[in-house]
Amino acid sequence: MTVDIIGAGIGGLTTAIALEKKGFKPRIYEQAKSLKVIGAGIILASNAMQVYRCLGLDESIKSEGIPLNALNITNEKLQLISKVDLTHFRNKYNLQSIAIHRAKLQQVLLESLKHTELHLDHQLKQFTKQNSGYKLEFENGKSVNSKVVIGADGIHSKVRNALNPGSQIRDMNQVCWRGVTKFDLPKVYRNELNEAWGKGDRFAFVQFSPDEIYWYAVKSFTNGPEEFSKDKLGLYFQKYPTLIQEIIKKTASETLHTTVMKDLKPIHTWYDAHSCLIGDAAHATSPNMGQGACQSIEDAYVLAESLSMQTAPEAFKSYEKIRMAKAHRVVNQSRQIGTMSHWKNPVAISLRNLVLKSIPQQVTISQLEDLFELDRYSS
User: Fold this and answer.
1) CA angle 292, 127, 163 (to 5 degrees)
2) Could you give the number of structural domains in the chain?
3) How many helices and strands, by DSSP H and E, does the chain display?
4) Which domain range does residue 278 map to?
5) pLDDT, tens digit, 9 for 90 and up, residues 171-214
6) pTM (two decimals)
7) Within-domain flag for 150
8) Which of 24, 47, 64, 130 has its CA 20 to 30 A from that of 312?
């Protein structure tokens, strides 16, 4: 069985590696002319790292990133509100969550491919159903007949639009700036992610290499993201501590990556007899739980397991049954967190912080148990 994957993002590459482990020889079609990654970081939580351990990549990834011991929510003065102690999961799974540069992760994945055909400059133009599969037509004039297609082509997926023409992308009315800079982070903040919640905005930072940090800043807008300029971030976040002001100042504005926060309203069909969706194509989530890529990595693992045991239609059905509930739960919870973290009413903010601070650590850990428990195929 030849499996054609549309998209060479983290989900697409991980799917190809997982399929190779099962004896498949995948083909990946990527719209970019070269695999250049915008300078940003990513958190690989315990569930993602469990997949990479199964694929034999955990040590390579660990060597390129920084292990995390905690995830912290603070107020805008960097005073702790809520802490997730990740050592519990380190002890449970004998591995750690990792902060890593996307480019380094991508390189580890690319170097792990052995038998996959990677076709660059192949932007999908038409996705036409045939009796025994699909005809894939690309903007460069080439076409391919495929019996098994995996849509790993992101939130604006053309594969999804063919399967679910009524799918809805939702705007969070928040603009996000992501940056990477060399920075000597105080020791107290190393090996942890800190996200500071203000009034209609937030700022987070994490060390992901010996001398670099990854950070992101998010702000709510009313009339559109054009309300804000990346050149004025210091002004927008002037109420935050000096440390955050220094991080912004040390990052060249021309290197910042600006996006509008969006997600995909949950859809309830991810497949047909010859095609299947994974990652953002199936369940794009706002990045408020650090689980977007992690969920696509879980998708890759479960789908490859299913395809190795069943025919494509049966495998797609099993994969959807295993993965949909958890993925949709992440989408919904992430959207709720994104809204709650941007409250502007001072009374509501004080009450929110008080409630979060009062939640026992054991309760927080229990809430993450299901999230970090790896979904698996079972016959």
Assistant:
1) 55
2) 1
3) 13, 18
4) 4-35+105-169+267-372
5) 999 999 999 999 999 999 999 999 999 999 999 999 999 999 99
6) 0.95
7) yes
8) 47
CB of 85 closer than 8 Å to CB of 365: yes
Residue 219 lies in a domain: no
Residue 209 near residue 66 (C-beta atoms within 8 A): yes
What pLDDT band is residue 375 in, cutting at 50, 70 and 90? confident
Q: What is the pLDDT of residues 100-113, one digit of tens each?
A: 999 999 999 999 99
Is pLDDT at 227 greater than 90 in this prediction?
no
Query: Tokens 């038409």 correspond to what residue?
Result: 126
**69: nearest Cα among 95, 51, 47, 50:** 95
Asked, for residue 131, whether it belongs to a domain, the answer is yes
Q: What is the pLDDT of residues 117-151, one digit of tens each?
A: 999 999 999 999 998 899 999 999 999 999 999 99
Say how far apart CA 299 and CA 150 lie, in whole Å.
11
- Let me know if residue 128 belongs to a domain: yes
Q: Inter-axis angle of helices 46-54 and 361-372, to 10 degrees?
A: 40
Say which CATH number the domain at 327 has: 3.50.50.60
38 pLDDT band, cuts 50/70/90, is low
E strands, 102-183, are: 117-119, 124-130, 133-138, 143-146, 149-151, 169-182
Do 303 and 150 touch, CB atoms closer than 8 A? Answer: yes
23-33: b (≥16 Cβ within 10 Å) or e: ebebbbbbbee
Cα–Cα distance measured from residue 110 to residue 338, given in angstroms and rounded to the nearest whole number: 32
Check whether 280 has a pLDDT greater than 70. yes
Rounded percentage of the chain residues whose pLDDT exceeds 70: 99
Rounded Cα–Cα distance for residues 76 and 86 (Å): 23
* CA distance linking residue 361 with residue 359, whole number of Å: 6
Helical spans, DSSP H, in 119-277: 158-163, 233-236, 242-249
Report the DSSP pairing between strands 117-119 and 124-130.
Answer: unpaired
Give residue 39's pLDDT.
Answer: 63
Dihedral sign for Cα 356, 359, 365, 370, please: negative
